[in-house]
Write a structure and sequence with these properties.
The structure is a single chain. The protein is α+β, with helices and mostly antiparallel strands and 65 residues long. It contains 1 helix and 5 strands. A hairpin with a 3-residue loop joins strand 3 (19-24) and strand 4 (28-32). It is globular, with a radius of gyration of 12 Å.
Length: 65
């Protein structure tokens, strides 16, 4: 799970395994595996970093802080 911020400023937690694509259009737009799209405040590189860290945490590669 990763912490993100909706474009309206509301924080939420997303299961990173549901992310299909991350685009900059110019806002960061996530497309989920169910086809839902959402816009977040974090830049694409940060979303990817958080998702990768989460995946590593699940596999026991990197301790989660």
């Amino acid at each position: 799970m990763i912490n993100l911020t909706r474009i309206n400023g509301r924080a939420f937690i997303l299961n990173a395994e549901l992310i299909r694509t991350v685009e900059s259009t110019p806002d960061t737009t996530l497309t989920l595996t169910n086809g839902e799209r959402m816009i977040v405040q974090e830049p694409p590189d940060e979303v990817v970093r958080r998702a990768v860290d989460y995946g590593r945490h699940l596999r026991g590669v990197l301790p989660r802080t």
